[in-house]
Every structure is written in C-alpha cells, then in structure tokens.
Amino acid sequence: MDRLRIGVVSCANWQAGWFSSYRHLAQREDLDLVLHLGDYLYEYAPGEYQARDVVVRPHDPPVELTVLDHYRRRHAQYKTDPDLQTLHAAVTFVVTWDDHESADDAWAGGAGNHTEGAEGSWTARRAAAQQAYAEWMPVRWEPGGALYRRLAFGSLASLSMLDLRSYRSAQATGPVSAQIDDPDRTLTGDEQMSWLLEGLTTAEAQWKLVGNPVMIAPVRFPSTLSTGEIGALQELMGATRSTACPTTSTSGTATPPTAPGSWTTCATTGSGTRCSSPATSTPPGPATCPPTR
C-alpha cells in the first residue's frame, strides 16, 4: 500500500443546514476512507443550538435527547439525509464520538447540557446514547467498552482513534483558571494515554495518525475576547499534562510529539500577560525534545 487518501469531517448539525460537504466527498471517487471525528449528530431540541438563529430543518424527536428512544430516533433522522446516505454507500467510515452524541460538554461524570435528576441520571443517559450509537454507527464496539482503537494500513500508516469524552475531567470554569494546573486533571485518562504513547512509540508505520475529536494545540488569546469567543475555547479546558517527545521507529521515520495537555492559555491585559501556570508571567516556549535521527 503506497497511498491513503482520507476525507475528514465532524460537527454535522441537522437543523443548522444541509450536508452538502458529504455530497462533495462522495463525488470525489478517490477516497479510501472517511474519518468522522465526532458530533455526528446533535442532541438539542428544535430551535436550540442552530446556526444564525435559523432552523433550516427541525430535529426529530422535537425534544432534547435524554432516553434511548430519543437517541434512536435522532440517529434514524440523520440517516435519512440523502448526501449522508450517498457518502456512506461510497466510502468506508471510521468514527469516534465527541460530546453531542450524548450531551454538550460531556465528561466522565456528567455534561454541561445535563441536569441531574430533572433529566434523569447521567449514567442512564450516557448508556442510552452509547446503545443507540452502537446500533446505528459503523463501529465494532460494545456499549460500555473502550471506543479508542488503532487501525493499521500496511506499513504506510497507523491510525489511533481517541475517545476524549468518556474519561476526561470536567471543564474548567474559565480559560485562565487554577483548575487547569491541577495535575490530576485529564483529557484521555491514564490508560488511554499510555495506550496512545505506546502505539506511537512502537508502530513501524511510516505515518502515525491520531484521530482526536477535541483540538490539541497551544492557545493564546487576548482579554478582549467576547463571552462567545471564550466559549469556543472551552473544549480545550480539560487537558491533561502528559507530553511525549519524538522517537525514531525501526522504519527510520520520526514519531511526532503528541501532547494533548502541553498547552498554556494566556490572557494579555494592560498589566502584562497572565498564563494558566502561576509560576510564569509570559507564555512558555514549545516543549524541547531531543533531535530525531
């Protein structure tokens, strides 16, 4: 195998518009697979969480998803989209979930869009979402098991698909918060992080790819950001502190550093720059790793 061409998609909100991007991917006829990185569907009721305050096409059922029948019906509705049908028929999907497959801002013990008691228990709601996901999505997975997994494409590439919702800590209360520096915070959980680093270190594939539904990147932003703009950064607030430096595989190809938590948030004000680490007054530079051979 000497070529792998992947289409990457995510965040498809039925009531916010049409799925023409799926149609364009299906028309290419040169893709080996489609990588869906989560938010395959959205759990909100009609009129909630749509783009530009316009409902292009209402969600079914006409309620926020909280129980198994709700999640099954929403999956069924999304599968009626003709462009999504065409892409599924044309190309293999490799999928993982983000938060909206269950509830917005989901974490191990709850979700920002879940009210314990009034909307049942989070344990029951998450189980319902996972059951519907297993029934409707192209993945060999049993509800309650580990969704993260690794796929090999000969000696050309290995693809590590992550689950960044089931094991993560709750999001911090703000973009500059002492919570971010808590060493016990995690995005992946210890077991998944160890699995990921082991795979990146030992895989002999030329390319080592990571399918991550949450952004992994350094972040700096000014204090003039609006509430909405800061909200767009909140998904980064559950990061783990783990880092990894490049190693050289037996194929002679350097493994890129993978560090979901090696980022620092910084806010610039008139008195200077404040970063998430209380020990620094200016943003730290990039992680220093030994050169690869």
TrEMBL record:
Positions of region (Disordered): 269-293
Pfam families (alphabetical): PhoD (PF09423)
Compositionally biased spans, kind Pro residues: 281-293
SUPFAM superfamilies reported in the protein's UniProt record: Metallo-dependent phosphatases (SSF56300)
InterPro entries, alphabetized: Metallo-depent_PP-like, PhoD-like_MPP, PhoD-like_sf, Phospholipid_Metab_Enz
Signal peptide from the UniProt entry: none
Residue ranges constituting the PhoD-like phosphatase metallophosphatase domain according to the UniProt record: 7-223
Gene3D superfamilies assigned: PhoD-like phosphatase
Name assigned to this protein: PhoD-like phosphatase metallophosphatase domain-containing protein
